[in-house]
Amino acid sequence: MEQGPPECDEVLASLTDYLDDALTPGRHEGVAAHLGVCPGCAAWLAQLRATIAALGCLRDGVVPPPVLTALRESFSR
Ligand SMILES: [Zn+2]
């Protein structure tokens, strides 16, 4: 049910799992393909990566919800 091309909302919701390699292979490919053609989501990914690197929290496979909320708000502006 998750094999269709993902929309931006789905991609953004899957980014942390994408970075953590927690998506199914098909889903991972879909997100990667979307990121290749969508500058907005690509920029969001770069920001998320930078934030995660700064916090050093990806090793736990967890991004604190407040961080996600802040990123979402900054992205939607
Ligand atoms: Zn997008």
From TrEMBL:
A Pfam family this chain is assigned to: zf-HC2
Gene3D superfamilies: Anti-sigma factor, zinc-finger domain (1.10.10.1320)
Domain Putative zinc-finger, first and last residues per copy: 8-42
UniProt keyword list: Transcription, Transcription regulation
The protein, known as: Putative zinc finger protein
